[in-house]
């Protein structure tokens, strides 16, 4: 399997991570503080590091920042109980692949580690334009590999919401960002999609702006509108199964609006409406 570094100053958490990951067949090296983690990552190659944020000597984010400045390409999962916007977005800026909150279920850890090992190199960085808790803006490279990565960070800004609301927001975001990258930007890794997240007492709002020229809905024969005719079109075009993204997103949120060119979309989930039972 893979060679992993587990870095956490809490002996109980560290042993839990090691037990789960060794059971999955990985070879594990441990670090008990940030300085030890930095030295081991500097001096040896690992397929992935699972690293805590708040550790003695160096924080997990400081470790990743040092390695980034030295040109070391390290795949990292940031694992912490701290979901402040500074920590969440700091992990994104330092090119962590996933951000996971403690405590974490064994099956979730197994799945996220495997997905992170399989992920392609991050390439161009995510850039944080605004890191206010209630107003976040990111510039994200137009790569489909970035979609779940960005979602794993932003979902932690809504930990006070119910699981059903978080899931609805996250799924709508995933579908619309995938469309923006795949169709709006044609998955051109040299370009960025701009994402804004706004949070008020009564709503969560996302704005996704892709760098493409836009589209007309009637031209999207490969996307679902009514019936399943689009599946035949997708097969003829050699596209992956799907095409339900916009329909699904509309069903999950309360408002969804495109601009005239249809290269920018805003969706809103109201927080003062009663959730369906």
Structure, explained:
- The structure is a single chain.
- With about 280 residues, the chain is α/β, with parallel strands linked by helices.
- About 40% of the residues lie in helices and about 25% in strands.
- The strands form 2 sheets. Strands 6-7-8-9-11-10 form a 6-stranded antiparallel sheet, covered by helices on one side.
- The protein starts with a strand and ends in a 7-residue tail after the last strand.
Summarize the structure.
The protein is α/β, with parallel strands linked by helices.
Quickly list its features.
9 helices; alpha/beta; 5-stranded parallel beta sheet; 11 strands; 277 residues; 6-stranded antiparallel beta sheet
Blueprint of the fold:
Elements: E1 3-7, H1 11-23, E2 27-31, H2 34-43, E3 48-52, H3 60-69, E4 76-80, H4 85-93, E5 98-101, H5 106-118, E6 127-132, E7 135-141, H6 145-154, H7 163-184, E8 192-199, E9 203-209, H8 229-237, H9 245-252, E10 255-258, E11 264-270
Parallel strand pairs: 1-2, 1-3, 3-4, 4-5
Antiparallel strand pairs: 6-7, 7-8, 8-9, 9-11, 10-11
Helix pairs in contact: 2-3, 4-6, 6-7, 7-9
Stretches with pLDDT under 50, minimum 5 residues = 224-228
The beta-strand count equals 11
Structural class label: alpha/beta
Distance between the termini: 43 Å
Strand order, sheet with most strands: 6-7-8-9-11-10
**What integer value in Å does the Rg equal?**
20 Å
- Work out the oligomeric state of the chains in this entry: single chain
Provide the β-strand percentage band. Answer: 15-25%
Number of helices: 9
Mean pLDDT across residues: 86
Tell me about the largest β-sheet.
Answer: 6 strands, antiparallel
What is the overall silhouette?
globular
Order of helices and strands: EHEHEHEHEHEEHHEEHHEE
Portion in helices: 25-40%
